[in-house]
Amino acid sequence: MRQTISTGGQLPGHRLGAVRVVTHRGSAPYVLKSPDPVGGAHGAIVGVGTQPVGGALLAAQGRQIPCAPGDVFVVDAAQPWELRQLHDFRLHLYLVPRNLIGLADQDMRFLWGVHRGTADGVTRLLVPLMNTAAESAPTYPQHIARGVAGGLVDLLGAMATERKSGHSPGSRADQDERAAMARRVRQFVNENLADRDLNPERIAAHHHVSVRYLHKVFAGEGTTLSRWIQQRRLDECRRELARLDGTEPASSFAAVARRWGFVNAAHFSRSFRAAYGVTPSEWRRIRTGTDADASAR
After folding, report:
1. Residues 11, 288: contact at Cβ < 8 Å?
2. pTM for this one?
3. How far apart are CA 148 and CA 150, in angstroms?
4. What is the spatial distance between Cα 143 and Cα 289, in angstroms, rounded to a whole number?
5. Alpha helices in 102-224 (DSSP H)
6. DSSP per residue over 260-285, as a string?
7. pLDDT on residue 297
8. What's the pLDDT score for residue 250?
9. Residue-level pLDDT at 90
10. Consecutive 10-residue runs of the chain (297 residues): their mean pLDDT?
């Protein structure tokens, strides 16, 4: 008889900050499935799983995709999905609040599905972390658990970026040229994020290209250069805020924003909320585990 387990039930598991991890073991036939979405209640959760043992078939978004040991599957909890086990298995499933990942909607689509451990560089980094954290979660002190969750979230963002880079239009030579320029620009921006005068004109002059060409490069990346600079600043602010212990005054948020190139604290707060769906103070509570119940909701 087939076992069917819904992720909407009261599953045993452990928390890593705002992230929950659950381990399933069993024998085929066995199906792990999402609950039917009810009023968007599960839309804020992303399911991320890997299987150290056993193969499975992921049915999601109208597709059926094999999932082998060493692969990572990512599903939108707002959409129906099933993971059908084919053998004896052990599965680690992470339930991640979507706003922790910090990707725009158009970039989230690069996460859905199965990421091959044999092909994706980021997946090869993510799988050992997922396996070790799932087995060791009960032993982690709170600050270590939050750090592990942060590493998991950052790798998910890198995974989307890696898959997105394989969808660039144009000829191979043109793609290679633009990709090389994009890498150089990213390195320059990352080294100068704290400079409030960093802008496309200065970056173009430094690399001896036109501003128009820079915009063309980043149009192929699915964004504008200015937006990418702002997103990188927000990413660094987000990481630094997650390290605050919850006792700092509100003025510390403004100090963090200034360190990463934001001139105006109000603009930083608005930009942060537009990017992640939460305010800087709400984000800190989520990542430090002081608002775990709200993030799960």
Report:
1. no
2. 0.60
3. 5
4. 9
5. 105-108, 121-136, 142-165, 172-191, 200-207, 211-219
6. TT-S-HHHHHHHHHHHHSS-HHHHHH
7. 41
8. 58
9. 93
10. 43 84 91 61 78 93 89 91 93 91 82 85 90 93 87 88 65 66 88 89 86 77 80 88 68 86 88 86 74 45
Q: What would the two tokens of residue 33 be?
A: 């499935």
Separation in Å, CA 43 to CA 154, 159, 257, 292: 20, 21, 30, 16
Count of C-beta atoms within a 10 Å radius of residue 274: 11
Residue among 231, 156, 153 at smallest CA distance from 190: 231
How many angstroms separate the CA atoms of 192 and 196, rounded?
A: 9
Residue 137: predicted pLDDT? 92
Residue 233: name the closest of 202, 206, 199 by CA: 199
Q: In Å, what is the CA distance from 283 to each residue of 35, 169, 195?
A: 27, 35, 24
In whole angstroms, what is the distance from residue 250 CA to residue 118 CA? 46
Taken in order 152, 153, 159, 165, the sign of the CA dihedral is negative
- Identify the pLDDT of residue 170: 52
SS3 116: coil
Structure tokens at 146: 């939050």
- For 12, the token pair is 């045993």
Residue 35, C-beta contacts closer than 8 angstroms, at least 6 positions apart? 6, 7, 8, 42
Region label for 261, one of left (φ > 0), alpha (ψ between -120 and 50) or beta (otherwise): left
pLDDT at 20: 93
Q: Which of 158, 114, 153, 180 is nearest to 242 (CA)?
A: 153
